[in-house]
Design brief:
The complex is a heterodimer of chains A (85) and B (317). By secondary structure, chain A is mainly α. Chain A is built from one helix and two strands, in the order αββ. The longest helix of chain A is centred in the first third of the chain and has 47 residues. Chain B is mostly helical. Chain B has twelve helices and two strands, in the order αααααααααααββα. In chain B, 33% of the residues are buried. The chains are: A mainly alpha (85), B mainly alpha (317). Chains A and B meet through helix 1 of A and helix 3, helix 5, helix 7 and helix 9 of B.
Chain lengths: 85, 317
């Protein structure tokens, strides 16, 4: 009973920290993807003298087959560096 | 009793004085400044005792958290991100994404961009077939450092690697032309055209080749304008003036459209002078053959170049 109580106390301390860490990691991934997109826009602008108004469809693909979508590549710019964060 | 009280008072006074003095001393270490300790890469490598990949994961998660923690502008932590990624890639050079992660966030100053380039070059040595590292290296040289020739070198290497997008080759050729080497641009585009397997992949390079052809003519018109203004002593207002007078500078204007354009696609393009920049351009392309940059980006590149020049002059004495 005491062991369970100790585990419970430890879990109650650890879980919020883990959740916060997960949220921070996701925000980091999102920020990095946005920064990469901005950078890709600048590179494309250098060549074409115009910004892409809308991202092309191939940017999105069914990642897990459940209907959720996930960015995997920027069509006109080539694959985006989204993996790994 | 009195002696004991005196000793206690002296001790307390010394403790209080020590506290006051310590509070006045400027913090010197990263830890005292509030920054966590990040070891030098070689120290981290020695301390990892063979568990480099494991320790690299720890520092990588830390770098990710630095970006995720900062809501406003993660780039202001560029130095910290650079140190962390340096440790990560020293401990485990086979990692792939951290090299580009650093390049994306290390853009706040020339020092940061040069450090990001050093990390990218390490990544290129580890992953020679990965076009994205060379691509970002070229972009940094062009967009932040204003070094088009080095940018073109990196982008040309990236453009021929597997899965590289077609626009890289075109951008590399455009950058190559900036240093005045239009022949090198044409040569590179010709190589890309020869390597293209089908009409779909050949078309963008042919379009770039057409732009180079028009740029040749535009530069010839630039030289004609210089001769006109030197001979007549007045600025050229209309291109038709080049053809007028007892001794015209030119007998005819060059074609404003590429020679490869089929008759049915010709649209009656002409040469014009931009009223804002005074540049001669063909209405077929609408601009000169050079990379497009916003005025703010041009300003930043100029400021960094000026700072670099003045630093060099100061060092030279």
């Amino acid at each position: 009973m005491i062991v369970v109580a100790i585990i419970g106390v430890l879990a109650s301390i650890a879980i919020p920290g883990i959740q916060r860490s997960q949220q921070t990691s996701k925000r980091s991934e999102t920020d990095t993807n946005l920064a990469a997109l901005a950078s890709a826009q600048k590179r494309d602008f250098a060549e074409t003298n115009r910004y892409v108004a809308a991202l092309p469809e191939p940017m999105y693909s069914q990642a897990d087959g459940t209907g959720t979508t996930r960015p995997t590549a920027i069509g006109g710019f080539g694959p985006l560096i989204v993996e790994g964060t | 009793m009195t002696a004991t009280v005196t000793r206690m008072a002296v001790l307390l006074a010394l403790v209080a004085i020590t506290g006051v003095v310590q509070a006045r001393i400027e913090p010197v270490s990263d830890i005292q400044r509030g920054d966590a300790f990040i070891p030098r890469p070689e120290v981290a490598k020695a301390a990892s005792i063979g568990f480099g990949a494991l320790l690299a994961d720890f520092y990588w998660l830390w770098a990710v958290q630095v970006v995720g923690d900062e809501v406003q502008n993660p780039a202001q932590h560029a130095a910290k991100i650079g140190r962390l990624v340096d440790v990560v890639t020293t401990l485990d050079p086979h990692v792939d994404h951290p090299y580009r992660f650093a390049a994306i966030w290390m853009t706040d100053s020339e020092a940061s961009v040069r450090e990001a380039n050093r990390l990218l070059e390490r990544g290129i040595a580890q992953h020679p077939d990965e076009w994205r590292n060379r691509h970002l290296l070229g972009f940094n040289h062009f967009f932040y450092l204003g070094e088009p020739a080095r940018a073109a070198d990196a982008l040309e290497e990236a453009a021929v690697l597997p899965r590289a997008p077609a626009y890289l080759g075109r951008l590399a050729a455009r950058l190559r032309s900036q240093g005045g080497s239009l022949e090198a641009s044409a040569l590179f585009l010709q190589q890309m055209l020869d390597q293209a397997h089908d009409d779909g992949s050949r078309a963008p390079y042919q379009a770039a080749f057409d732009e180079v052809e028009i740029e040749y003519s535009a530069r010839a018109l630039d030289r004609a304008r210089e001769r006109f203004e030197a001979e007549r002593g007045t600025p050229l207002v209309k291109l038709a003036e080049l053809l007028r007078g007892p001794e015209p500078v030119l007998e005819a204007l060059p074609p404003a459209e590429p020679s490869s354009l089929p008759e049915g696609l010709r649209r009656g393009s002409r040469w014009a002078i931009d009223p804002e920049t005074s540049e001669i351009f063909s209405t077929y392309t609408g601009r000169r053959y050079e990379p497009a940059l916003h005025a703010t980006d041009r300003k930043r590149i100029r400021e960094w170049q000026d700072a670099r020049r003045s630093l060099r002059e100061t060092e030279d004495g």
